[in-house]
Amino acid sequence: MEQRPSEMRMIPIDQIETLNPRERNNRVFEEIVANIQTIGLKKPITVTSRRKQDGTEHYLLICGEGRVKAFRSLGETTIPALVVTVSDEDALIMNLTENIARRQYQPLEVLQGIERLHKQGYDKKIIATKTGLRPEYVHAILTLLRDGEERLLVAVAKGRIPITAAIMIANAGDDNKAVQVALQDAYESGDLRGQQLLQARRVIDSRQSMGRSMIPGPRHKRSDVTSSSLIRTYQKEVARQKMMVKKAEFAQQRLLFVTGALRQLLADENFTTLLRAEGLDTLPKYLAERVWPLGHAA
Prior knowledge:
58% of the residues lie in helices and 10% in strands. The chain is built from 13 helices and five strands. It has helices at 26-39, 65-73, 88-101, 107-119, 124-131, 135-146, 150-157, 163-171, 176-188, 195-210, 227-266, 269-277, 285-291, and strands at residues 7-12, 16-18, 45-51, 57-63, 78-84. The longest helix is centred in the C-terminal third of the chain and has 40 residues, at 227-266. The protein is flat. 26% of the residues are buried.
């Protein structure tokens, strides 16, 4: 990848085009903004310059999307930038490589980068060479994307199961017996052990009951999945699970309120006498165990 000499300059924020936009955790973004407010920008962003048809200059953002958003949120109109001269393809590769090199990169972004490089015409060996990823890993990711294996892709990206085990499961198709054989082979080969074996079992159960896609709906043997749609689906699934947790917490609070109120009411002899007279002096076992946790009767 040829890269000509770079130049440091202040550039207008409104002339920056994000090359590979990504979602950012709100807490992380707030930390970036706070750091810039406190100590300023420690590292300039990296861009490459382009000319529009009307001759005006704009910039493709290679590295520093969070810093650009932070500057924009602070009302700044310009930002320090390292301007390099590279091709569109090399800019994309630099962006992907920078994301992979970050300590806390988002795993699904790597899938997106691999897919985009593949669409640019690079084969698995070239992608592996340019990004530092193993050719086997790149090939496996492209295979899972092609086959619409969303659940397996998310499990691999989040480090729940190794890519080798995911490929073995995917190759088994929808045949339950073949999937079980693949799971056993992965265990015997050492690819799946301990917690990863449990995670694989959960992914397989979800894959068999709800299909390869994480989008609710009719099951399909194959689907045209892209890394972008996978990221959106994964984000929706995370949001759904967070909402379920909130509902569970709310239900738990309501239950604690009800059991507390019942405990106070049942301590009143007049109230319990009235219940007995009406034939309402028993509680469901589940509720009774919470009203009297030690098993005492009213």
